[in-house]
Amino acid sequence: MPKKKIVKSSLKPVRRKKFEPPRLLRGMKDILPEDQQYRLAVIKKLEDIATSYSYQRIDTPILEQANLFTRSLGEDTDIVDKEMYIFEDKSEDRVSLRPEFTAGLVRAYIEHGMLNRTQPVKLYTVGPLFRHDRPQAGRYRQFNQFDCEIMGGKAPIVDAELIAVAHSLLRDLGIDTQVHINSIGSSEDRAQYSNELTSYLKSQKRRLSEESKLRLLKNPLRILDSKAEEDQAVIAEAPQIVDWLSDESKEYFINVLEYLDDLNIPYVLQPTLVRGLDYYNDIVFEFYEEGETGGAQSALGGGGRYDGLIEMFGGQPTPAAGFAIGIERLILTMKTKQLQLPGLYVPDVFLAQLGKSAQKYSLALMDQLRLSGFQVRANLVKGSLSAQLKVANKIGARFTLILGKKELLDGTIILRDMESGSQEIIDIQKVEKELHKRLDREPSKPAVRTIGPIDEVVRAEMEHDSPNPEEVIIPPAEVVETVAPTVEE
Ligand code: AMP
Fold first, then answer.
1. Radius of gyration (Cα) for the chain, nearest Å?
2. Which atom of ligand 1 approaches the CA of 138 most closely?
3. By C-alpha distance, which of 330, 307, 194 is closest to 252?
4. 323: Cβ below 6 Å to ligand 1?
5. What is the mean pLDDT of the chain?
6. Is the CB of 73 under 6 A from ligand 1?
7. What letter would DSSP give residue 224?
8. In this predicted structure, what is the pLDDT of residue 483?
9. Which one, out of 12, 57, 174, 393, has a CA that is 20 to 30 A from the CA of 360?
């Protein structure tokens, strides 16, 4: 028998690439639902306080022309040198994800002719920023800041108010802070100081860390920001900028400090604080939790004055100052200190419904309650009352409304106080009034009734309802109970 010829396939075996499940990029962070509560509540609180100080919200794009940042921050700064996400878009424009807010807000101030508005213009914004930094605890490549800027005003009291706003934002969230403050004078003061500092640092070069040796060539001022152990002694003996300040800058600085004294805002003079961006002049500051010595990742926020930036971008000479607070670091501090969340999204009322017709009616009732200004929650998946009450408890609802077939027919609803466990039957038409009374709240506006006592669809359905094994009629609870109602499930 002839041997069977084995024909080798000319096709090479296809080596399938192992499927790599998509992963989060290094340095990025998902903000999960359980963390949103914190984030939204903190941002809401910050917004409320900033608004009370007359700051108005502005939003600028995340993507801007790259040179907006390279020109304003300075080519030799860490952010521009190493950390910016820069790329060419499809139109071959060099664009960048914003690494900070100030430059974008200054661009918007000029482009929208905000100089013609009543000065100063006080703006706040909040959102994500991007820096391709080495990720570590409390340092991400995408993070969020809350930012306030005041443009069109220069006086020591303006700087003091700006610092006071940041201080009270943090204090009202439960964090007592100390301001680390310095004056870096005018650009002329800084140029002279920089020469002096550079010759001193050159004389100490061999004692410096490798990174600082490199900075010596590019941006010697940044060495003052170094956290490297070996640099500390050199920094401590370095000439201090305060000795190079013009009389004008010195007086301005002293006046700001006097206002801070008057406002009882604790501060520490920090002669090595320079905040390494080119656009700052005179007052620069950072916020640390009280007792913090100023470690690498411990500043909660910082800012300063930038009187030349608007003019540099082609606007009229306009003095300005601002600060930013890091949202992630703020939340981390609040969690470490086990601080209470500002009571924002705590639901006023949970709506429990039993049976199909009650469920249907509840959708309209929830809408009605929301329109009347209540934070309402429900769980339309869980059938039994005890399961729904468990959810209500877990989310911390203040009251639970219980609606079953009997209540629907009677035009009533059971109102349960989740703290005391007591419950009573009330007229469904008066539910908002009762809730307002018990929550000690004034009705914000006249309630718009979107539903009648029991709408036609539900009535028709109830008439034709086949007996539904899951549907439970709640026993009359005329008596005020202190335990969960015993309803068969
Ligand atoms: P800066 O704009 O560098 O002055 O930073 C102001 C604040 O933003 C800091 O004090 C931090 O709270 C926060 N921050 C800065 N960089 C990061 C980062 N990479 N990750 C998380 N938070 C940051």
1. 31
2. 21
3. 307
4. no
5. 86
6. no
7. G
8. 34
9. 393
